Amino acid sequence: MIKENLLQIKNKLPENVTLVAVSKTKPITDLQEAYDAGQRIFGENKIQEMVDKHAILPKDIQWHMIGHLQSNKVKYMAPFVNLIHGVDKFKTLKEINKQAKKNDRVIDCLLQVKIAKEETKFGFSFDEIESILVSEELANLEHIKIVGFMGMATFTEDQQQLQEEFLSLKTFFEKQKKITDTLNCKLQTLSMGMSGDYPLAIANGSTMIRVGSSIFGNRNYN
Ligand SMILES: *Cc1c(COP(=O)(O)O)cnc(C)c1O
Questions:
Q1: What residue spans define the domains of the chain?
Q2: Which of 100, 131, 204, 218 has the smallest CB count inside 10 Å?
Q3: Which atom of ligand 1 is found nearest the CA of 198?
């Protein structure tokens, strides 16, 4: 079913939207099946799991870290990670920069923005991002590049609320894109939308969706 699910999603995807197949908790065989169906971008939320899968699977896969980051583990993925979505602390950016430098790389990052009304979601506020983007401290981090933002909407069926949250991030993204263009900050990617809400996210300006269960089926955490 993985191939069918994948093709069904891809067939309806606008050209400017990138699909990240979220494979967390899923076995290698599932990822291989998606790979054989043409998928090359995979998202994981645990560094160790991503490192293990990276070691086994084909080397032309682009690995995206979509989960909350523990600074002390950044070093394990620094040699190969393609995009880090969930940066929500300046301290983490500094650690990514340090590890990228050791690997002689520049690592692309998205800043996570808090758009959900729920208390539990991680992320910077709009104000915090505005000050980070113009800070001298950021300019000094030569081994990271901020290429956009990531947001997670509230877990709700309320389409109106979802739309407002997505649109608030899209509006902020467009505004920052116009005024920010430095060596290590070029905003081009807006990562929002998951299995339950990606069509609405795309309608409200998403350029990258992170889809897990609609491709691989429900996750079993036991
Ligand atoms: C798990 C996860 C997803 C995918 O969720 P689905 O509902 O299975 O599509 C997307 N983004 C993040 C940050 C996740 O942790």
A1: 2-216
A2: 218
A3: 9
Mean pLDDT over the full length of the chain: 95
pTM above 0.85, yes or no: yes
54 lines ligand 1 (CB under 6 A): no
Q: How far does residue 68's CA lie from ligand 1's centre (Å)? A: 12
In CATH terms, is domain 2-216 a member of 3.40.50.1000? no
* Cα(104) to centroid(ligand 1), Å: 30
Query: For residue 183, how far is its CA from the centre of ligand 1 (angstroms)?
Result: 30
* C-alpha distance across the termini of the chain, in Å: 22
Residues lower than pLDDT 70 in the chain: 120-121, 222
Give the tens place of pLDDT for each residue, 27-41.
999 999 999 999 999
Q: Which of 45, 64, 152, 206 to mutate to test ligand 1, by most ligand atoms within 8 A of the CB atom?
A: 45
Q: Please tell me if the CB atom of residue 22 comes closer than 6 angstroms to any atom of ligand 1.
A: yes
